[in-house]
Design a protein that fits this description.
- The protein is mainly α.
- It has 3 domains: about 40 residues, no CATH class; about 70 residues, Serine Threonine Protein Phosphatase 5, Tetratricopeptide repeat; about 70 residues, Serine Threonine Protein Phosphatase 5, Tetratricopeptide repeat, CATH 1.25.40.
- It is about 65% helix and about 10% strand.
- Helix 2 runs antiparallel to helix 3, helix 5 runs antiparallel to helix 6 and helix 8 runs antiparallel to helix 9.
């Protein structure tokens, strides 16, 4: 029991010890130890993802906060935290984290997609359409095109919405 508690403590401190036995060089076994530092940000991100999959959004958020504390430029942690905040109905916090994620990696379509979805639900239709446009420039995605069409309907841009729906009908877009 104590052996496992010590190992867990080392993992939590971000350190793992590997022990190797070398019997080829000598008749007797020699033990060497190497200490490898674990990226603490990634460690907490993995814990957060596990909790997210279990639907434990508050726990996931706490681990993501720790992950970002260790590395404020961890795109995946910010992106994931934005999603968790959305599930916890923290729209303002979610939008702020999507903004930070976009600033770190402007070539990734998913923060634009999800931010656009939130903006559309919040009635900020023109901003949402811009995000959907940006995402569609990077990746052709039928769901994004559909969401843009619906958002355009809400802004009474019926001709543009119809063009989006027609593109969907052409069958070139995958859901």
């Amino acid at each position: 029991m104590i052996k496992y508690a010590f190992r867990d403590l080392l993992v939590l401190l971000g350190v793992v010890t590997f022990i190797s036995v070398n019997t080829k060089a000598q008749n007797r076994a020699t033990v060497s130890t190497d200490i490898i530092k674990i990226d603490s940000s990634e460690f907490y991100l993995n814990l957060a993802n596990d909790q997210f999959e279990l639907g434990q959004f508050q726990k996931s958020l706490r681990f993501l906060d720790k992950s970002i504390l260790f590395n404020q430029k961890n795109f995946e942690s910010l992106y994931t935290r934005a999603s968790v905040k959305y599930f916890l109905n923290d729209v303002k916090g979610s939008l702020a984290d999507y903004e930070k994620a976009i600033n770190l990696n402007m070539n990734e379509p998913y923060p634009y997609i999800y931010r656009g979805t939130i903006l559309s639900k919040a009635g900020r239709f023109q901003e949402a359409i811009k995000d959907f446009d940006k995402a569609l420039e990077m990746e052709e995605d039928a769901m994004v095109l559909y969401n843009r069409a619906i958002t355009r309907m809400k802004t009474r841009e019926y001709e543009k919405a119809l063009m989006d729906f027609e593109k969907l009908e052409e069958g070139e877009w995958k859901f």
